[in-house]
Design brief:
The protein is α/β, with parallel strands linked by helices. The chain has a single domain, classed as 4-Layer Sandwich (Metallo-beta-lactamase, Chain A), CATH 3.60.15. It contains six helices and 14 strands. The longest helix is centred in the C-terminal third of the chain and has 12 residues. Its cofactor is Zn(2+).
Length: 211
Protein backbone atom coordinates (compact mmCIF):
# COMPACT_ATOMS: atom_id res chain seq x y z
CA UNK A 1 0.00 0.00 0.00
CA UNK A 2 1.30 3.45 -0.93
CA UNK A 3 0.23 6.96 0.05
CA UNK A 4 0.79 10.51 -1.11
CA UNK A 5 0.45 13.61 1.05
CA UNK A 6 -1.03 16.70 -0.65
CA UNK A 7 -1.28 19.92 1.40
CA UNK A 8 -4.33 21.91 0.27
CA UNK A 9 -5.83 25.32 0.99
CA UNK A 10 -4.69 28.28 3.11
CA UNK A 11 -4.30 26.10 6.21
CA UNK A 12 -2.24 23.55 4.24
CA UNK A 13 -4.50 20.72 5.33
CA UNK A 14 -3.06 17.37 4.36
CA UNK A 15 -5.15 15.38 1.93
CA UNK A 16 -3.93 11.84 1.34
CA UNK A 17 -4.23 9.46 -1.56
CA UNK A 18 -3.93 5.87 -0.38
CA UNK A 19 -3.50 3.50 -3.29
CA UNK A 20 -2.57 -0.05 -4.18
CA UNK A 21 -0.77 -1.82 -7.02
CA UNK A 22 -3.98 -1.83 -9.04
CA UNK A 23 -4.02 1.98 -8.92
CA UNK A 24 -7.30 2.14 -7.02
CA UNK A 25 -7.29 4.75 -4.30
CA UNK A 26 -9.02 6.22 -1.29
CA UNK A 27 -9.11 10.00 -0.94
CA UNK A 28 -8.73 11.16 2.65
CA UNK A 29 -9.83 14.70 3.63
CA UNK A 30 -10.04 16.61 0.33
CA UNK A 31 -9.96 20.03 1.97
CA UNK A 32 -9.71 22.40 -0.98
CA UNK A 33 -8.16 22.97 -4.43
CA UNK A 34 -10.09 20.27 -6.34
CA UNK A 35 -8.29 21.13 -9.58
CA UNK A 36 -4.87 20.56 -8.00
CA UNK A 37 -6.08 17.33 -6.41
CA UNK A 38 -7.59 15.91 -9.60
CA UNK A 39 -4.44 16.83 -11.50
CA UNK A 40 -2.33 14.73 -9.14
CA UNK A 41 -4.83 11.85 -9.29
CA UNK A 42 -4.63 11.89 -13.08
CA UNK A 43 -0.85 12.24 -13.05
CA UNK A 44 -0.60 9.11 -10.90
CA UNK A 45 -3.25 7.38 -13.06
CA UNK A 46 -5.32 6.51 -10.01
CA UNK A 47 -8.93 5.36 -9.86
CA UNK A 48 -10.70 6.81 -6.81
CA UNK A 49 -13.05 4.44 -4.97
CA UNK A 50 -14.26 6.58 -2.05
CA UNK A 51 -13.70 9.68 0.07
CA UNK A 52 -13.13 8.99 3.76
CA UNK A 53 -13.12 11.85 6.25
CA UNK A 54 -11.25 11.89 9.54
CA UNK A 55 -13.62 14.66 10.66
CA UNK A 56 -15.73 17.45 9.20
CA UNK A 57 -14.00 20.72 10.02
CA UNK A 58 -14.17 23.10 7.07
CA UNK A 59 -10.52 22.82 6.11
CA UNK A 60 -10.93 19.07 5.56
CA UNK A 61 -14.14 19.12 3.46
CA UNK A 62 -13.96 22.02 1.02
CA UNK A 63 -13.51 19.89 -2.10
CA UNK A 64 -15.76 16.99 -1.07
CA UNK A 65 -18.62 17.59 -3.48
CA UNK A 66 -16.44 18.49 -6.47
CA UNK A 67 -14.39 15.34 -6.04
CA UNK A 68 -17.39 13.15 -5.21
CA UNK A 69 -19.23 14.29 -8.34
CA UNK A 70 -16.25 14.08 -10.67
CA UNK A 71 -15.54 10.45 -9.85
CA UNK A 72 -19.02 9.28 -8.83
CA UNK A 73 -17.84 7.97 -5.47
CA UNK A 74 -19.25 7.78 -1.94
CA UNK A 75 -18.30 9.88 1.07
CA UNK A 76 -17.82 8.29 4.50
CA UNK A 77 -17.87 10.09 7.86
CA UNK A 78 -18.54 9.23 11.49
CA UNK A 79 -22.20 9.41 12.47
CA UNK A 80 -21.50 11.96 15.20
CA UNK A 81 -20.63 14.51 12.50
CA UNK A 82 -23.24 13.52 9.92
CA UNK A 83 -24.80 17.01 10.07
CA UNK A 84 -21.53 18.93 9.90
CA UNK A 85 -21.05 18.75 6.14
CA UNK A 86 -24.25 20.74 5.52
CA UNK A 87 -23.95 23.17 8.43
CA UNK A 88 -21.29 25.94 8.32
CA UNK A 89 -21.85 26.64 12.02
CA UNK A 90 -20.88 23.08 12.92
CA UNK A 91 -17.97 22.70 10.48
CA UNK A 92 -16.59 26.07 11.55
CA UNK A 93 -16.58 27.86 8.20
CA UNK A 94 -19.26 30.30 9.41
CA UNK A 95 -16.76 31.72 11.89
CA UNK A 96 -13.37 31.24 10.24
CA UNK A 97 -13.93 31.75 6.50
CA UNK A 98 -13.52 35.25 5.09
CA UNK A 99 -15.68 34.45 2.09
CA UNK A 100 -18.49 31.99 1.41
CA UNK A 101 -19.10 29.44 4.19
CA UNK A 102 -18.43 25.85 3.21
CA UNK A 103 -21.27 23.42 2.70
CA UNK A 104 -21.33 19.93 1.24
CA UNK A 105 -24.10 17.43 0.76
CA UNK A 106 -24.67 14.75 3.36
CA UNK A 107 -22.31 11.79 3.49
CA UNK A 108 -23.34 8.63 1.68
CA UNK A 109 -22.15 6.27 4.41
CA UNK A 110 -21.60 6.61 8.15
CA UNK A 111 -19.06 5.02 10.44
CA UNK A 112 -21.17 3.88 13.38
CA UNK A 113 -18.54 1.98 15.31
CA UNK A 114 -14.84 1.31 15.27
CA UNK A 115 -13.19 -1.82 13.95
CA UNK A 116 -12.18 -3.46 10.67
CA UNK A 117 -13.81 -2.21 7.49
CA UNK A 118 -13.47 -2.91 3.78
CA UNK A 119 -14.08 -0.35 1.05
CA UNK A 120 -13.47 -1.64 -2.46
CA UNK A 121 -10.04 -3.32 -2.29
CA UNK A 122 -9.02 -1.58 0.92
CA UNK A 123 -9.03 -3.27 4.32
CA UNK A 124 -8.23 -1.14 7.35
CA UNK A 125 -9.31 -0.30 10.89
CA UNK A 126 -11.45 2.66 11.89
CA UNK A 127 -10.43 3.95 15.34
CA UNK A 128 -12.61 6.44 17.17
CA UNK A 129 -10.28 9.23 18.35
CA UNK A 130 -12.56 12.06 19.56
CA UNK A 131 -11.38 15.15 21.37
CA UNK A 132 -10.45 17.48 18.54
CA UNK A 133 -14.04 17.00 17.42
CA UNK A 134 -16.77 14.57 18.56
CA UNK A 135 -16.62 12.33 15.51
CA UNK A 136 -12.90 12.34 14.82
CA UNK A 137 -11.61 9.00 13.59
CA UNK A 138 -8.25 7.59 12.53
CA UNK A 139 -7.66 5.05 9.78
CA UNK A 140 -5.11 2.36 10.63
CA UNK A 141 -3.49 0.19 7.95
CA UNK A 142 -1.67 -2.36 10.14
CA UNK A 143 -0.09 -4.38 7.32
CA UNK A 144 1.39 -1.24 5.80
CA UNK A 145 2.28 0.18 9.24
CA UNK A 146 0.73 3.61 8.96
CA UNK A 147 -2.22 5.49 10.43
CA UNK A 148 -4.09 8.52 9.13
CA UNK A 149 -4.65 10.42 12.37
CA UNK A 150 -6.52 13.51 11.18
CA UNK A 151 -6.07 16.35 13.65
CA UNK A 152 -5.65 14.15 16.71
CA UNK A 153 -1.85 13.80 16.77
CA UNK A 154 0.84 15.86 15.05
CA UNK A 155 4.60 15.86 15.05
CA UNK A 156 5.38 17.31 18.47
CA UNK A 157 1.85 18.47 19.08
CA UNK A 158 -1.83 17.50 19.34
CA UNK A 159 -5.06 18.83 17.85
CA UNK A 160 -6.66 21.97 19.20
CA UNK A 161 -9.61 21.44 21.51
CA UNK A 162 -11.01 24.97 21.83
CA UNK A 163 -13.48 24.57 18.95
CA UNK A 164 -17.14 23.54 19.49
CA UNK A 165 -17.27 19.90 20.55
CA UNK A 166 -13.60 19.82 21.48
CA UNK A 167 -12.44 18.23 24.73
CA UNK A 168 -8.80 18.23 25.82
CA UNK A 169 -9.04 15.38 28.31
CA UNK A 170 -10.94 13.27 25.80
CA UNK A 171 -8.30 13.90 23.14
CA UNK A 172 -5.45 12.91 25.46
CA UNK A 173 -7.35 9.74 26.35
CA UNK A 174 -7.94 8.97 22.65
CA UNK A 175 -4.26 9.36 21.87
CA UNK A 176 -3.21 7.27 24.83
CA UNK A 177 -5.78 4.49 24.41
CA UNK A 178 -5.97 4.24 20.61
CA UNK A 179 -2.74 5.57 19.11
CA UNK A 180 0.12 5.09 21.55
CA UNK A 181 -0.77 1.39 21.88
CA UNK A 182 0.15 0.84 18.22
CA UNK A 183 3.61 -0.48 17.28
CA UNK A 184 6.22 2.22 17.73
CA UNK A 185 7.30 2.00 14.09
CA UNK A 186 3.80 2.92 12.91
CA UNK A 187 4.01 6.00 10.70
CA UNK A 188 1.58 8.76 11.67
CA UNK A 189 0.10 10.71 8.76
CA UNK A 190 -1.39 13.85 10.35
CA UNK A 191 -3.91 16.37 9.10
CA UNK A 192 -1.30 19.14 9.14
CA UNK A 193 2.47 19.19 8.97
CA UNK A 194 5.07 16.46 8.48
CA UNK A 195 4.70 12.78 9.25
CA UNK A 196 6.05 11.21 12.40
CA UNK A 197 5.97 7.85 14.16
CA UNK A 198 4.25 6.57 17.26
CA UNK A 199 7.64 5.92 18.85
CA UNK A 200 8.87 9.46 18.20
CA UNK A 201 5.77 10.99 19.77
CA UNK A 202 5.96 8.71 22.79
CA UNK A 203 9.51 9.88 23.38
CA UNK A 204 9.38 13.59 22.59
CA UNK A 205 5.86 15.00 22.30
CA UNK A 206 5.60 17.55 25.15
CA UNK A 207 1.80 17.17 25.31
CA UNK A 208 2.11 13.48 26.07
CA UNK A 209 4.58 13.57 28.94
CA UNK A 210 3.73 10.93 31.47
CA UNK A 211 2.64 8.40 28.87
Amino acid sequence: MKWKQIPLGPLQTNCYLVYDERKTCLIVDPGENPRKLTGIIEELELKPEAIVLTHAHFDHIGAVDRIRDKYGIKVYIHEKEKDWLTDPALNGSKYFMQHEPIKAREADELFTDEGPISIANFYFEVLETPGHSPGSVSFHFPKSKFILAGDALFQGSIGRTDLPGGNHNQLIKSIHDKLLVLPEETEVLPGHGPTTTIGMEMESNPFLNGF
